[in-house]
């Protein structure tokens, strides 16, 4: 409905930024970027830039928030006022409230929260620059920050969005493709567990397109999690061979 | 900030095991259903005369009311040639011991946004024909969802209520004064609200190793995660939301889609019975 008349795929089948449909944007990751936080990471998918920090396990400011058998996870997804073309009001929007929830639910399946009863683990995600795929970039940054904080995890998670523009399924859509395209499907998962932890679809897909889009996302998530492992090994000076029995459990 | 729910209903481990045990035999804890059948669903429209459109949906013991109000307002700057559609949900405290008075929490916001997207992305409401003066005056359509009784699966009941209320809605008469001001006369309701699609959502819960459509409150409380699939009348997927703390394999997602697709006709039928298709 939105895309009428706008060409986002060239006759050669390339996207407006020159990528092929199954290409990711250039991804950059760095861990341990903040001094105060127990863990932190900054992740870029093209021009989208997201920083995440983890505090905890710690005593929450309000004690009523505690669970007797595990830690509570508290997640805030927030966009910096300067992250968008028009200034974004810093007050949390309905969108940010929803995304904080779906990101929390994307992280909880991999965390061993039962190791820390009566505590809180806080994940703060700040979108510094938004160019599409901010929630999925946020999940990847949060996964790295949690690992950097030494929070016990069953597996790493990563996110990526698949879109549909001019009838073509494309991986890792940017803002132009999201705003002009026919569908935006953010996905996050933990390949080492074989589990999808976040799935949303904004837009219209046939059943067949949905299955292909999910497959595209899954293969990309596998690649992004490998990058996460590489970055963590780099930080902690682990060669791949030394990893036995570690993250892969 | 979104926090792991810490005020959850207590469901005993025995009850949880019983729910899973009956599912393992292809049955449900209510003793009536199989995993693939939604509860009895009843859609009634025109329940609130003062609203331009309204509906009451009963899905088992879950009750959701939806009211459509129509105003004249200004369009969004980036869509000067389109009317405005807004969906809000209120988790009214009388509906559940879990609901507290106050502004919508993340669950109410998520619900409203999922319903909103499922309607918006497919163009269920023809916003292009709600323009009075391009860039200046358009119809603003408010869909307010009122959860009256929470026995699980608020998503499907709310989507049905929203859709039925929109189908029931009529635009108020308006006149343009010499000053250019637009005044509406709510006592005269004329054209039906222009709609292009009928949309329903179907929720499938993952409970342990099992999948079940339209979970009731207890099933929902013990579920790992839920997948909400929205479909239009042609079977296209017009929205998806995974909700809940758990995770699903791709194989489970594919099976859940199949279950949802096969259950959707039950909701479409309830909708068609309440508001017959034109020419039917």
Short description, anyone?
The complex is a heterodimer of chains A (249) and B (280). Chain A has 249 residues and is an alpha+beta fold.
Describe the structure.
- The complex is a heterodimer of chains A (249) and B (280).
- Chain A is of the alpha+beta class.
- Helices cover 26% and strands 29% of the residues of chain A.
- Chain A has one domain (27-238): Ribosomal Protein S5, domain 2.
- Chain A has four helices and nine strands.
- A five-stranded mixed beta sheet of chain A has the order 1-2-3-5-4.
- In chain A, strand 1 and strand 2 (39-45) form a beta hairpin.
- The longest helix of chain A is centred in the last third of the chain and has 30 residues, at 207-236.
- Chain A is globular, with a radius of gyration of 18 Å.
- The N and C termini of chain A lie far apart (45 Å).
- Chain B is 26% helix and 34% strand.
- In chain B, helix 2 packs across helix 3 (154-168).
- By secondary structure, chain B is of the alpha+beta class.
- At the A-B interface, strand 4, helix 1, strand 8, strand 9 and helix 4 of A face strand 1, helix 2, strand 12, strand 13 and helix 5 of B.
């Amino acid at each position: 409905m939105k895309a009428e008349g706008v060409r986002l795929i060239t006759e050669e089948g390339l996207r407006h930024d020159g990528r092929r449909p199954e290409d990711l944007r250039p991804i950059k990751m760095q861990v341990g970027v903040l001094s105060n936080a127990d863990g932190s990471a900054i992740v870029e998918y093209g021009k989208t830039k997201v920083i995440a920090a983890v505090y905890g396990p710690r005593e929450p400011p309000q004690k009523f928030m505690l669970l007797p058998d595990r830690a509570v996870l508290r997640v805030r997804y927030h966009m910096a006022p300067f992250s968008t073309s028009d200034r974004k009001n810093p007050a949390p929007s309905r969108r940010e409230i929803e995304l904080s929830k779906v990101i929390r639910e994307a992280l909880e399946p991999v965390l061993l929260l039962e190791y820390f009863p009566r505590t809180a683990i806080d994940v703060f995600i700040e979108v510094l620059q938004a160019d599409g795929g901010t929630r999925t970039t946020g999940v990847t940054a949060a996964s790295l920050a949690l690992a950097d904080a030494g929070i016990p995890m069953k597996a790493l998670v990563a996110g990526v969005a698949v879109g549909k523009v001019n009838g073509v399924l494309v991986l890792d859509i940017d803002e132009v493709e999201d705003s002009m395209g026919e569908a935006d499907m953010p996905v996050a998962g933990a390949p080492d567990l074989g589990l999808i932890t976040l799935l949303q679809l904004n837009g219209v897909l046939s059943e067949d397109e949905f299955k292909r889009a999910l497959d595209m996302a899954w293969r990309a998530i596998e690649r992004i999690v490998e990058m996460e492992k590489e970055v963590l090994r780099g930080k902690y000076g682990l060669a791949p061979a030394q990893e036995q029995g570690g993250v892969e459990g | 900030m979104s926090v792991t729910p810490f005020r959850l209903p207590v469901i005993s481990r025995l009850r949880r095991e019983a729910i899973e045990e009956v599912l393992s035999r292809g049955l449900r804890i209510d003793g009536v259903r199989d995993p693939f059948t939604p509860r009895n669903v009843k859609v009634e429209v025109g329940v609130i005369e003062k609203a331009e459109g309204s509906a009451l949906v009963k899905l088992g013991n879950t009750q959701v009311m939806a009211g459509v109000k129509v105003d004249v307002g200004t369009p969004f700057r980036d869509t000067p040639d389109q009317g405005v559609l807004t969906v809000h949900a209120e988790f009214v405290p009388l509906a559940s011991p879990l609901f507290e008075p106050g502004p919508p929490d993340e669950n109410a916001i998520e619900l409203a946004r999922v319903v909103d997207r499922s309607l918006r992305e497919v163009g269920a409401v023809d916003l292009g024909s709600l323009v009075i003066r391009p860039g200046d005056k358009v119809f603003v359509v408010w869909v307010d969802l009122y959860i009256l009784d929470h026995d699980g699966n608020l998503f499907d009941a709310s989507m049905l209520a929203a859709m039925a209320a929109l189908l029931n809605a009529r635009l108020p008469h308006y006149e343009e004064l010499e000053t250019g001001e637009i005044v509406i006369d709510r006592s005269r309701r004329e054209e039906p609200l222009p709609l292009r699609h009928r949309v329903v959502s179907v929720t499938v819960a993952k409970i342990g190793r099992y999948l079940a459509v339209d979970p009731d409150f207890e099933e929902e409380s013990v579920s790992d995660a839920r997948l909400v699939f929205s479909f239009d009348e042609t079977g296209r997927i017009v929205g998806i939301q995974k909700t809940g703390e758990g995770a699903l394999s791709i194989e489970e997602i594919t099976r859940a889609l199949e279950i949802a697709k096969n259950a959707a006709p039950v909701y479409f039928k309830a909708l068609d019975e309440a508001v017959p298709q034109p020419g039917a």
